[in-house]
Amino acid sequence: MQRILACWLPGCLIKAVAAEDDDLSVTEHAPAQGTFAGCTQILFREQREVVTTGARLLFRDRPGAAFRESPVALFDDAHAVVYNPRDRLFYATDTGRHRLISFRDPGREQIEQSVTMLAGVALDRPHDLVVDRDGWLYALNPNGPVVFRFRGFGLEESTLDLSQHLGYSRALTVVDGKLFVVGSSVGKVVEIDDFARKQFRVHASFGKRREAVAGSWQTTGLVPNDVEFYQGHWYATSYFCPTYAQGTDCNEKKFIRFRSWPDFEAGRWEDLGDLLPRDVVPYYLTAHETGLFVATFSHETKGNPGKVLRVVSRRRMR
Question: Going by C-beta distance under 8 Å and a sequence separation of 6 or more, which residues neighbour residue 221?
Fold first, then answer.
């Protein structure tokens, strides 16, 4: 049984849920005023924060400061950015231009390198980028899909073709050193046990109705944008919005959490859709020491205005 509390403060939405064993709260993290256009992800690197907003990167050097536009420009529908401590470089997807770029500092204009191919395979609207604790980078071609693994551009590049198991796929996640591939249209998540040996397991979501790149719970079942692990639970977002909901409720189960992959497959999850503003799309998730961050945007509104929200889970004393 959940008890939902809500209140509004100037410029800051706050919602809270009292669940069985913890209290969840949601606040607006950024921006302090206005919105981000086409907001898909936030990255934390020490005190610095970097946000992908479609045509540009925005960054600030400390929490609470104003965001500035990065001079690393010329993006077309950028989706993700990651920092690799191994070579001290940022990597970003320039999705609309079918390329990846690397740069050393979002506050400087210089691009270190740009590639349109990895392991002999052309990049096709690459969406997500992640790095594991061993310094391996992973990128994703959503159509197919194909997962790339590399040490750096031109270094130990290889691929994993998941087209026999997944359709359109938006995200990659690394948890405890293990890679997960989020199959959006088919509502599945692939858990990679050994990339080199191409060993993996497929987790199919409960209640999937039909394959689709967007929809609603009632018309399609889950269409996951991303999954992330935070404070003992897996969290998942889905691409649900009025345009694709066909008159049904696009907020139902657009944000869920569950304990384990068997729970994901059996439908034993909590619906957290009411924690988020109505009719916005929750996209990529970022787990951080200060909370779980959700990039959101409006699919229907011109410019796709959005916010980064912060979810905090606090255990209740028994």
Answer: 187, 205, 206, 207, 208, 209, 210, 215
Residues in the chain: 318
Per-residue pLDDT tens digits for 175-200: 999 999 999 999 999 999 999 999 99
pLDDT at 6: 42
Q: How far is CA 143 from CA 27, 125, 170, in A?
A: 34, 8, 9
Q: Name the β-bridge partners of 238.
A: 224
Q: Which residue has the tokens 């959101």?
A: 296
251-271 pLDDT tens trace:
999 999 999 999 999 999 999
Classified as helix, coil or strand, 183 is: strand
Q: Concatenate the DSSP letters of all residues of 56-95 into one string.
A: -EEEESSTTSPPEE-S----SSB--EEEETTTTEEEEEEG
| 155: Cβ contacts below 8 Å, ≥ 6 apart | none
* CA angle in degrees (0–180, nearest 5) for 123-126-131: 110
What pLDDT sits at residue 278? 95
Q: Is residue 23 within 8 Å of residue 6, measured between CB atoms? A: no
Q: Any idea what DSSP says for residue 152?
A: B
CB atoms within 10 A of CB 267: 14
